[in-house]
Amino acid sequence: MPLATTTMIALSLQIINCFLFTATTLASSPPHGFTVDLIHRHSNSSPSRLSNTHLGSSPYADTSLDTLSSEYLMKLQIGTPPFEIEAILDTGSDLLWTQCLPCLNCYNQYAPMFDPSKSSTFKYKTCDTPDHSCPYKIDYVDKTYSKGTYATETVTIHSSSGQPFMMAETIIGCGHNNSGLTSSASGIVGLNWDSLSLISQMGEKFLGIFSYCLASKGTSKIKFGSNAMVAGDETVSTTMFMKSEKPGYYYLNLDAVSVGDTRVETFGTSFHALEGNIVIDSGTTYTYFPGRFCNQVHKAVENVVTADRVVDPSNSNRLCYHSGTIETFPVITMHFYGGADLVLDKYNMYVNRGRVFCVAIMCFADETKEAVFGNRAQNNVLVGYDTSSLLVSFKPNDCGVEETNQESLFSMFL
Ligand SMILES: *[C@@H]1O[C@H](CO)[C@@H](O)[C@H](O)[C@H]1NC(C)=O
User: For the Peptidase A1 domain, which residue ranges apply (predicted)?
Assistant: First the structure.
């Protein structure tokens, strides 16, 4: 049961990025230009890309829930010969890093650690520094960090054609001093909007499109490129926004939250915005709202729940009740910009240990902190990111179950 300890919550939002490494980020070019360029290529200059071979070779990776940390782990391979790692799936940061030998200070990891000296394709990056080294340090909101050296390495993931999808000379972080993750994870794979992220390094061919379906148990998948399109019945889409202050984050605009029949508007609170007020993040467990708005949402829950209030057993100030059943609790709906109403399953919004149920929405007092739409709320929803059309799409789904062949959908799309 992915119920909380205080350490499992805000893993991912990355606060400080690296130093000594400069790259042109997607953030510096208007995302619209990107779109136009792709449409052009698709319709005219490279018709071969429309072939089924390309569609059939869409990359994907298996993911699973680490119940201890409530993080999703993506399986991928690095190096030659390929060496498997399981990295936390994080749309709130950019870098793909893994614990790397020799270790100055590594956390305990169950799986064997990556040894660059055993890989024929591993190369430390060189930088314009006195000793040409290229160090990085990445810090996350929950105090997790990784320090090490940038390197280029082959990254391999599965593909639907059966042929492995290989990304030569991918920039990764070889972490020699790392702290904060559970032993099941060998690192973090960043999937944000920045140029270093895995999806950005896949290149234009993959259209900046990926989708994942986070199952509460068993194996689920993350997909990249055209096979990752989310469409069809029950799909709702909302605009993604980028902020120049925090260029990598995928911001959505949350207009209101309904608790049962009570609609709580962001309008009139400091949370209200027109161009993004909440970051969608696969690497954070709970959903976080700023105090004033959040208290109204909690109030609305209190108004309908008749079960007894109990103190949060994990001391993290959650709204908790003693109840024999989840049925006692009201359905919560997120109203995103553009009429994208996401009706959440009760499992998404109430976490329990035994008979103690807590609301998976946490309030923070500092109104300037980032609101987060976390991974528990995204469970059993197919979530698609499309940076070329600037949309995030949601489609309720049973994520543990293989979906049907979507081939017909792709021909429609193309
Ligand atoms: C690892 O990094 C931390 C945080 O920057 C630092 O305090 C510590 O001294 C480093 N440890 C080693 C062995 O380099």
Answer: 72-395
Whether 243 and 216 share a structural domain:
no
- 33 has pLDDT over 50: no
Query: How open is the CA angle 301-302-307, to the nearest 5 degrees?
Result: 105
In which domain, by residue range, is 210 found? 10-19+27-228
Cβ-based neighbours of 47, under 8 Å, separated by 6 or more: none
Neighbouring CB atoms inside 10 A of 97's CB total 25
Domain tally, the chain: 2
State the pLDDT confidence band at 320, using cuts at 50, 70 and 90.
Answer: very high
- Dist. CA 320–CA 327, nearest whole Å: 15
Query: Could you tell me which residues are beta bridge partners of residue 99?
Result: 175
Distance of CA 111 to the CA centre of its chain: 23
Task: Tell me, using a 6 A CB cutoff, whether residue 176 lines ligand 1.
Answer: no
Pair (285, 209) in one structural domain: no
Give me the phi and psi of 301, to 5 degrees please: -70, -45
Ligand 1 and 105: CB distance under 6 A: yes
